[in-house]
Structures are given as C-alpha cells and as structure tokens.
C-alpha cells in the first residue's frame, strides 16, 4: 500500500464526475438525475435539508448502494463501485459520520485496521507507526501520541484520526459526512484546517454539512440538493447565506430564508425585505 501522491491528478482537473445518477427506495425517489463534478485540489460542499439525498449520494459514490441509473466517472474512466473496499481501492475514501473507530485500540491500530502493513509474514508495527506520524504530519494534526487509545482523544482528535485513516491507500477523493456536527467551536476550527490541508495536498474533497458557516469558510463550490435533485450550485464567493438557505428550502419567501435574508439585508431594497415578511 503506497501513500505517495505521485499518481494524483493535477489541481483543477475533474477527478470524479457524476451524471444522471438516480436511486429509488421503494416509493421514495431518493436521487433523480443528479450530476456533480469534483476537481483535484477543490472542496465541494454538498448541502441540503434532511432527506435531500446527501447521504444516499455519498453511499452511491462509496459503493454502499448501487445506483439505479447514471454514470460515475473517476480519473477519466467510467466505473462501477461494487462496494466500500472497491471504492477505497479505486481512490475514493469516505469518512462516515459515525467514524467507526475502535475506542480500545490505539491510533496506529485504528489507522491500519483491516489494511495492516506487513514486513514479511509479520505485522510491521514500526513501519505503520512511522506512516502514522507521516499521515498526521501531512494534516498538521495535533495528536499527542500514536500509541494512546482512541478513548483518550477529544472529538476533534478522533475526527483527525478518521480523516488520517481515509488517507491510507492514497485516495484522490475524500468524502466527509458531517465532520463537525458533534464538535465545539475550537475543534470545528481544527477540522476545517484539516480540510484545507486535504485540499492543499491536491485531493478532491466532498464535504457534507448542515453548517453554512463551515461550508462558507472552507468550500470552493457548493452543490445544493433538494428532494433528490440538483437545486442550485454556487461558487462560494457568489453565494450569500440567504441565497443558500433559499436554495436549500426551495422558496425565497420561506420564513427561514426570509429571516436569513433580513440578517444580511443591509444592501437589499425595502420592498424585497417586506416581501420576506410573509411566512412561507
Ligand atoms: N435505506 C433506505 N431505505 C428507504 N429509504 C431511504 C433509505 N435511505 C434513504 N432513504 C430515503 O431517501 C431520502 C433521502 O435520504 P438521505 O439520503 O438520507 O438524505 P439526507 O442525507 O440528505 O438527509 C429520504 O426520503 C430517506 O427517507
Ligand atoms: Mg444524511
């Protein structure tokens, strides 16, 4: 298992492309005709209300679900992702929301769980420990020791370990499902720094988040899903919080959107603000 960056796509090149992706669960059309591109060295935020289809899309990309239709192109080739280990082998890593770390095992053991490095017939503890430090250094991560159990780490440090683990195997795309949902302010800032480090190393990053402040702080582009469809797409510098909320809720006269719009309304006309007073 190599963790070199030699075969990574040049920054700006599309590494992952979805076209016409659909997925139905019984009567629920969870995704219809979804498209999304992710470039090397770019953070794409995937946002949307509960039930919008974000997790389903992540699971389609990571091979947990087979899509009913559509194409996934990775590194220039059309691919079928047969399962999470196949995704990992292709170069698509996922940090799921529950992190799936083993509390009683140390950092090294968690990083290489199920993908231990061998030296001949033996587990290469020294090699793995070195690689663990290298990965954490890549992330400028603040972990006191790689030989302490996960149980002794803070929430932010656990997220760090889960992100570092996703880098084992040298992926080109990393997906993070709500990485800051359970974190306080300082730890959130730490994780946002990690995401910037991922971008700097040339990875394509897909960030799922409910937190518009996080999204606006770290994303380059924002893809909005609503009811399983592409609702809007913004470059982060072009989208106000009000516009984002409006795209997520699907109504500019919706009460949530109008509240957000009033907060950032200093440059907007009075008529616009007044029309926002009606409840949606
Ligand atoms: N395994 C499943 N079985 C049935 N319905 C599902 C399943 N997973 C998701 N759904 C439905 O698909 C829609 C999209 O869900 P999801 O992708 O979890 O949205 P999000 O992550 O944006 O909140 C929802 O209506 C949800 O109830
Ligand atoms: Mg979800």
UniProtKB/TrEMBL annotation:
Pfam families: ABC_tran (PF00005). Residues 258-280 are annotated as: Disordered. Residues 16-252 form the ABC transporter domain. Keywords: ATP-binding, Nucleotide-binding. SMART domains: AAA. GO terms for molecular function: ATP binding. InterPro entries: AAA+_ATPase, ABC_carbohydrate_import_ATPase, ABC_transporter-like_ATP-bd, P-loop_NTPase. SUPFAM superfamilies: P-loop containing nucleoside triphosphate hydrolases. The keyword Nucleotide-binding applies. Residues 271-280 have a biased composition (Basic and acidic residues). This is ATP-binding cassette domain-containing protein. It comes from Nocardioides astragali.
């Amino acid at each position: 298992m190599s963790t070199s960056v030699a075969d990574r796509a040049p920054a700006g090149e599309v590494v992952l492309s979805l076209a016409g992706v659909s997925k139905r669960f019984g009567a629920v059309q969870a995704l219809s005709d979804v498209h999304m591109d992710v470039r090397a060295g770019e953070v794409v935020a995937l946002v949307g209300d509960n039930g919008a289809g974000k997790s389903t899309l992540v699971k389609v990309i990571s091979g947990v679900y087979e899509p009913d239709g559509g194409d996934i192109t990775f590194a220039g080739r059309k691919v079928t992702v047969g399962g999470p280990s196949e995704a990992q082998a292709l170069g698509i890593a996922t940090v799921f929301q529950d992190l799936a770390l083993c509390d009683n095992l140390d950092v090294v053991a968690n990083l290489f769980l199920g993908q231990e490095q061998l030296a001949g017939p033996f587990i290469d503890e020294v090699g793995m420990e070195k690689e663990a430090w290298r990965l954490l250094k890549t992330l400028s991560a603040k972990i006191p020791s790689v030989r302490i159990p996960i149980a002794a780490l803070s929430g932010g440090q656990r997220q760090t370990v889960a992100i570092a683990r996703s880098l084992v195997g040298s992926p080109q795309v990393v997906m993070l499902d709500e990485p800051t949902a359970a974190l306080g302010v300082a730890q959130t800032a730490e994780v946002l720094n990690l995401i910037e480090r991922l971008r700097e190393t040339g990875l394509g990053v897909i960030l799922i988040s409910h937190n518009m402040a996080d999204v606006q702080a770290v994303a380059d582009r924002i893809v909005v899903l609503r009811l399983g469809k592409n609702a809007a797409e913004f470059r982060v510098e072009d989208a106000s919080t009000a516009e984002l909320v409006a795209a997520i809720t699907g109504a500019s006269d919706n009460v949530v959107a109008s509240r957000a719009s009033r907060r950032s309304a200093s440059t907007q006309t009075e008529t616009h603000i007044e029309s926002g007073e009606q409840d949606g």
